[in-house]
Amino acid sequence: MKPMLAAAIGLALAIPVATLADGGMTVPLPDTSGLAEPEARALIAQLAQVNVITSNCPGHAISDGEWTLITGTGDRLAAQLGLSAGDYDREFYGPAFKLLDDPQACDRIGPTAAPLIERLKSMGGGTTPTTASQ
């Protein structure tokens, strides 16, 4: 399973790209600075849910670039909201992992990945690697 956090939360706002945790790639992140807190919290919850479902449900896998975009954006939002890593996990990933107890969750949440990725792209994010780590 892929790690939940792709980059250090403290660096998420300072770096305009997210790096795949294993050093495989970086992708452009969307501009989330204009989101009001309620919208940012709703988006980070959706990102956590899609991350958990696409990482754990057969038939709903996404590419490494898409995963890096999702997790990097989540990390950026967590930093923007002032969340510690523990708060981020407790408030957003805990509930997202509980979805795996629902046998309908994969088929309900999995199809929301593509529209979410398109939304992030429309905000300036991308899934195409900008650089590959050596």
- How would you describe the shape? globular
Give the low-confidence spans.
1-17
Which percent band covers the strand fraction?
Answer: under 5%
Number of strands: 2
Main sheet summary = 2 strands, antiparallel
Number of helices: 5
Explain what you see.
This protein has 134 residues and is mainly alpha-helical. Helix content is 49%, strand content 4%. The protein has a two-stranded antiparallel sheet with strand order 1-2. β1 and β2 form a beta hairpin. α1 packs antiparallel against α2 and α1 packs across α3. It is globular, with a radius of gyration of 14 Å. The N terminus is likely disordered.
Q: What's the gist of this structure?
A:
This protein is mainly alpha-helical. Helix content is 49%, strand content 4%. It has a two-stranded antiparallel ribbon with strand order 1-2.
Features:
mainly alpha; 5 helices; 4% strand; globular; disordered N terminus
List the helices and strands and how they pair.
Layout: E1 17-19, E2 26-28, H1 37-56, H2 64-80, H3 85-98, H4 105-109, H5 113-122
Antiparallel strand pairs: 1-2
Helix pairs in contact: 1-2, 1-3
